[in-house]
Amino acid sequence: MAAVSGHPADSGGPEDARRAGDSEGAGDPDGGHPSAFRRAVTALRSARPRPEVRLEEAPAPRRLAPHAFALTAAVESEGEELADGRFVLLHEPDGHKAWNGAFRVVTLARAELEPEMAGDPLLPDVAWSWLVDALAQRGAEQHEAGGSVTRAATHHFGTLSERPTATEIELRASWTPLDERLDRHLAAWCELLCSCAGLPPVPAGPPVPPHRAADGPVGRPPAGVVRMPTRRRPRH
Question: C or N: which end of the chain has fewer Cβ atoms within 10 Å?
Fold first, then answer.
């Protein structure tokens, strides 16, 4: 992705995650970037999530920071997509005041929930704890974490009234990593995504096939998960 100038109006909070969903342009993430950013991208490409997680490089947002790298993720099991999301790494070589650092991770995770889980009043707090715990368990040191958990229900009427009510959880979060082990941060986020999908925890296993880059295979995308809700239904 080509370097561009500009900063977010509200860097470091949920708005980062919202804007990160609007991507523009793609390019060579290795070309014309600082060495620290290139090392961070290499670390992300070395991450190894569990087999159900499919990672792909994607166009990165161009207005959030001079340097950015993005990945999309989908959790699939038995032919069904259970959860999806986006992981964006931003880099400001001179540091960003709102981030309190030179890097910022901006993420989005979402999944459809079963009714019994969707109605739990503690769901937002529990969902946020999934992320915090996953980061801690992976040794992904960070600070200035912020985000939001949204629970939205879709009701159908008229000719669609036979469809069941669907409830989706959406977790937007951003944080400032304290080291260059970005693979740990990606691994933790993948655990969160699998938890949102309702997959049971699994021990770390052997490497899985590499994830697909925008221009072909690049590195191997860590494993593990946290407890989560019931598996969602496939999207229609």
Answer: C
